[in-house]
C-alpha cells in the first residue's frame, strides 16, 4: 500500500522535512522492538517536537485513516510499538526533557523519552527516589513504562509505574489535548482517566507529559543470594517471607538455567553455583537504619533455613551487590542470546508460584519444549522463556502456542492473569479470551472506540483478532 | 411519579416480599446520607441477597427505565447515594460477609456491606493490616470506600482505597456480571477496569465482591501534637517534614476552631489548648522498632522547631493516643453539630497548602462566610467547612456558591482538584467545569454511556447539569 502523497505533504508541513523519514534504514530501525525477532516497519517515521505537533499529526491520521503507532525506546517485550499495519511510526524521541523536579512536593514532571535510569539518577541527586526499575531501565523510556505499566525488581515493596503516576498530558487520538487528572496524591474527582491511560499501550492516546510522585530515598540495603536445592521450595519460601511480616525491597527468583546462562553471557561475574542448586532467590531489604536491616536479614534467614538450602551469600560491598544485580538483570538477554524464544509474563498470587512453576514444566513436557523461568517472585510475576533450541519449525509454530495457551489457562485458574508488566501488545492478544469474557472484551473495545473512533492509534494491539 | 406496578411485581419476585419496601419510614431512612441536610428518598427500597439478584433487578431497571441508586452505609459526604430521581434505592446491606482472609497471599475477599473497621479488626487478628482508615471507619462500608476512593489519616504513608483494590466483582448496569481484573499485585492485561470502577461513585456498576491487598502490620507508633502560633506556618511545616526525608504514617492539620469544637462536643478530652494557638498538627510515625521511631520523632521535632510553636505533646500511652485520635476524628461531627454547613474536600500538592488556606480565608472575607478547615495535610487534602451560623438564607444560597466556585478555581490553579476523598456526587457536580475541559467531560460521559446506555444507574451524579 502506498502512503497517501497529500497526507505526506501535510505531515511534512507539520514537523518540517528534517523530521519525517521514508528511507529503508530508518523504517527498518523503527520496525522492531525487543519482542522475539519480529519486524514491522512503518511506511513513514515522524519525529514531532511537542504535543501540539502530535495533535496536528493525529488529525491528519484521522482524515486519511492512517494507522499511527507511537514508538518509544523499542525495548518492549509484547510488540506494542510495532507498526503492524504500516502507516506512521510516531517516534517520541524529541520529547526528552525532565521539565521540573519539584522538591517541595516530591514530584517530577517529565516528557516520555527520558530514559528511566536517567530520571532515577536526576531525582536521586536531590535525595529523592523514583523506585520503579524495570530490568531494561538503562535503555527504556519512562513514557513506555507508563504505556505498559512496567514493574521491576522493587515493585514488591514500592509498587509499579501506575502507583507513581499522578497526572498525564495526553494527546487523544482525535487530536484533543487533555490533562487526565491533577498533581495531587489523592483524587476522587470523576472517573480515573489517569489509570485508564496507564497500561493502555499507546492505544488510547499519546502521552506527552508525566507527573510522577517521588519518595524520600532510603540510604541502606542488604542483599542476600539464597541457593535452593529444589526450585519449588524456592517458590514456597517467597510467600513464607511475607507471612513472617517482612516486606523485602526485592525478591527475585532465578531457575538454575537462567543463572548459568547469565554467568556465561556476562563477563566478570563470579558466583559459586553448585550443580545441585536448582534455583536461587535474590532478596533485598532496604531502609535508613543498618541495624534494623541486619535484624530483618536475620529474620529472612530464619525463614529460608526451614527449606533445603545451601550457604547464603551476604553481599556486603557495593561491588558484590552490583555483580549480583548485573547477573539478575542480564538473565533475560542471556537466555535470549542462546536461542530463538518466546517470553510469557505470567503473574499469579504469590503463594501459587510453586503450582505455576510445576505446571509450566509439565506443560513443557507434554508439548516438547524447554522453558527457563525467572522473575519477580515477590509479586508472583514469573517470566517464562520458552526456548526453541533444536525444536522443529512445525512444532514451534503449532505445538508451542497450544502449550502457551495451557500455561495461561493455568495462570488464570490460579486467579492470576496473562501479563504482570510487559503488556499484551501484539503477541499475547489472541490469549485475551482466557482472561476475559466476551462481555468484558466488548466493553474494552467500546472504550477504545470512544477515544479513537477511526481506530487510527496503534491498531491491532491488545484485542484478539476475533471476539 | 408513580412507580410502575408491573415492574414492582417483577422486582418482588426477584427478592421476595420481605426485601422490598415502600413504607414512608424506610424510604425516608434511605433518602439521606451525611451530606448537609439533604433528603431524596427513593420510591422503592430493595435489599437483594447477591450479585445474581442485583443483575436481575438491573435488567428490570433497564426494561422500565427506572433510576436505580446503589446505597451503602449512607455516610457519604457528597450525596452519591441519594435517590435524586426517586426510583429504586438498592440497599447492599445483605452483602455483608468477609468471604476469605487469605493469609498465604496477604489478601482479603469481602462483600461491600462490611464496616471498614470490622474488616480492619478481622485482618488485624491475623497480624495483617488494611491501612485505609476514613474518619467514618466505625460506620462506613468498604463498598462505599471503593465507590468513592476513600482516603483517611494513614493515606499519607499507605495510600488510599484504590491502592489496595486488586480485583472487583461488578454487576454492570446492563446486568452482566464481570470480574474487573485478577487477584495479582501486578497487572498489565488490557485497560484497567478495576481502577476505572474505583471512585466511579456507583455510576458504572454495582460492586459485589472486593479483593484487597493487605500488608504486614507495624507494631509500634509514636504520636505528637504540635501547637502552632500561626496556621499558615503549620501548613508550611507539612512540606518541610517530607523534605527532611520522613514519611509519617499520619499528618493531620486542625485549625483552632476545629479543635475547640471537638473538645466541646466530645466528653473526656483534656488537651491544653492556649488561646494563641492558631492551629495544630497531629503527627504519627509507625514501624516495628521503637528506637527508630524515637529517632524519627526527634527529626520531626527538629523540623517543627524551626517554626513558631508551643510545647509539643508526646502521646505515650494508648489512652493518650486514643484521646487525640478521638478528637481528630470527632472534628467533622463537632463542627457540623454546630450549624448548617457545606463541606468541600479540596486537595492540592502539599506545598501549596499555606496558599490554599490563606486564599480560603480571603474568599470567606469577600463573600462573608466563616470557614473551619482541617484535614489530611500530608496529602494536601483540606476539608473546608463553611458555616452558615447567622448568615441570611439569601446569602447562603447565592453568595456562598460563588465563594465555593472561587475556592475550587484557586485549588485547580494550584494544580489541585475538587475532591481528594469524598467524591463529586451530587453537591460538587456543577463545579466540574473548573477541573475539566468540555472535551474531557464529554469523554467521561461517553464512558458512562457505554456502561449504562439507558442511564439507569445512579443518574444525576458526577456530571454537571449542563456541559
From TrEMBL, chains A, B:
Pfam families: FAD-oxidase_C (PF02913), FAD_binding_4 (PF01565). Its cofactor is FAD. Keywords: FAD, Flavoprotein, Oxidoreductase. Residues 38-217 form the FAD-binding PCMH-type domain. InterPro entries: FAD-bd_oxidored_4_C (IPR004113), FAD-bd_PCMH (IPR016166), FAD-bd_PCMH-like_sf (IPR036318), FAD-bd_PCMH_sub1 (IPR016167), FAD-bd_PCMH_sub2 (IPR016169), FAD-linked_Oxase-like_C (IPR016164), FAD-linked_OxidoTrans_Type4 (IPR051914), Oxid_FAD_bind_N (IPR006094). One of its GO terms (molecular function) is FAD binding. This is Glycolate oxidase. It comes from Flavobacterium terrigena.
Amino acid at each position: 500500500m502506498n502512503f497517501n502523497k497529500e497526507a505526506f505533504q501535510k505531515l511534512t508541513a507539520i514537523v518540517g522535512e528534517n523530521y519525517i523519514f521514508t528511507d529503508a534504514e530508518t523504517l527498518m530501525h523503527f520496525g522492531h522492538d525487543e519482542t522475539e525477532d519480529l519486524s514491522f516497519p512503518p511506511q513513514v517515521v515522524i519525529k514531532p517536537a511537542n504535543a501540539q505537533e502530535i495533535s496536528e499529526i493525529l488529525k491528519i491520521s484521522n482524515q486519511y485513516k492512517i494507522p499511527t503507532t507511537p514508538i518509544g525506546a523499542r525495548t518492549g517485550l509484547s510488540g506494542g510499538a510495532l507498526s503492524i499495519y504500516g502507516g506512521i511510526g510516531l517516534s517520541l524521541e524529541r520529547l526528552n526533557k525532565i521539565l521540573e523536579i519539584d522538591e517541595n512536593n516530591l514530584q517530577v514532571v517529565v516528557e516520555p523519552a527520558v530514559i528511566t535510569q536517567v530520571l532515577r539518577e536526576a531525582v536521586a541527586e536531590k535525595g529523592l527516589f523514583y523506585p520503579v526499575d524495570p530490568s531494561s531501565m538503562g535503555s527504556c523510556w519512562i513514557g513506555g513504562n507508563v504505556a505498559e505499566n512496567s514493574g521491576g525488581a522493587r515493585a514488591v515493596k514500592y509498587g509499579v509505574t501506575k502507583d507513581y503516576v499522578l497526572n498525564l498530558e495526553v494527546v487523544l487520538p482525535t487530536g484533543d489535548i487533555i490533562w487526565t487528572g491533577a498533581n495531587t496524591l489523592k483524587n476522587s474527582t470523576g472517573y480515573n482517566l489517569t489509570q485508564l491511560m496507564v497500561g493502555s499501550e499507546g492505544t488510547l492516546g499519546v502521552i506527552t507529559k508525566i507527573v510522577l510522585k517521588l519518595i524520600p530515598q532510603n540510604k541502606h540495603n542488604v542483599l542476600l543470594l539464597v541457593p535452593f536445592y529444589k526450585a519449588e521450595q524456592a517458590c514456597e519460601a517467597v510467600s513464607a517471607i511475607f507471612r513472617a511480616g517482612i516486606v523485602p525491597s526485592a525478591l527475585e527468583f532465578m531457575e538454575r538455567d537462567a543463572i548459568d546462562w547469565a554467568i556465561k553471557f556476562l563477563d566478570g561475574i563470579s558466583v559459586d553455583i553448585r550443580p545441585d542448586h536448582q534455583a536461587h532467590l535474590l532478596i533485598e531489604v532496604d531502609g535508613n537504619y543498618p541495624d534494623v536491616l541486619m535484624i530483618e536479614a536475620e529474620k529472612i534467614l530464619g525463614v529460608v533455613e526451614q527449606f533445603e538450602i545451601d550457604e547464603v551469600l551476604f553481599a556486603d560491598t557495593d561491588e558484590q551487590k552490583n555483580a549480583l544485580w548485573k547477573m539478575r538483570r542480564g538473565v533475560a538477554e542471556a537466555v535470549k542470546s542462546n536461542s530463538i524464544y518466546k517470553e510469557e509474563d505470567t503473574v499469579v498470587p504469590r503463594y501459587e508460584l510453586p503450582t505455576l512453576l510445576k505446571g509450566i514444566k509439565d506443560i513443557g513436557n507434554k508439548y516438547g519444549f524447554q522453558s527457563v523461568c525467572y522473575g519477580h517472585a515477590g509479586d508472583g510475576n514469573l517470566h517464562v522463556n520458552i526456548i526453541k533450541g533444536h525444536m522443529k519449525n512445525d512444532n514451534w509454530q503449532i505445538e508451542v502456542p497450544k502449550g502457551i495457551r495451557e500455561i495461561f489457562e493455568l495462570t488464570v485458574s490460579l486467579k492470576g492473569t496473562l501479563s504482570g508488566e510487559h503488556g499484551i501488545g501484539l503477541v499475547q492478544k489472541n490469549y485475551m479470551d482466557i482472561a476475559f469474557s466476551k462481555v468484558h472484551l466488548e466493553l474494552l473495545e467500546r472504550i477504545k472506540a470512544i477515544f479513537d473512533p477511526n481506530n487510527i492509534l496503534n491498531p491491532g494491539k491488545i484485542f484478539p483478532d476475533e471476539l
